[in-house]
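Page 47, continued from p. 46.
Same chain as before, 156 aa.
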Amino acid sequence: MDDRLYRNVMGSFATGVTVITTKVADVVHGMTANAFMSVSLNPKLIAVSIGANAKMHQHIKDSKKFAINILSSNQLNESKQFSGQLQSETEITFVTYNGLPILEDTLAVVTCELHSEYVVGDHTIFIGQVTGVKIEQKDPLLFSQGKYRELKELQE
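Result:
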């Protein structure tokens, strides 16, 4: 199976866009990710898949806690900055929620303590025990087929 074809097929699944944040030794770290999902309602667990070579991989292992910032449609620049797509970084202001650094103006935030981790192929699936959630009435930032997208209501 061709790697490019596989990536194109997986990329055709539209997802929301998140930035994972954590703090290690008083330094805030962030990484854009769309491999995020809810795992369980009782107990409340989420999963995020992170490549073994990503810096965030070790940061989560070190901090043992992290936040999932679900981006709103007006946060394209934040997504691009934390995925390394911008030529020059702009200064990001973080606020604290449940003891973790989070982005302002997000659609939603989920804070977690590391529950477990599973090495699968070239990634690790980190399972987070949810410690807090918050949500705002905003539209999500979406990603599909290699492009950022916005939500549009369909006529019934």
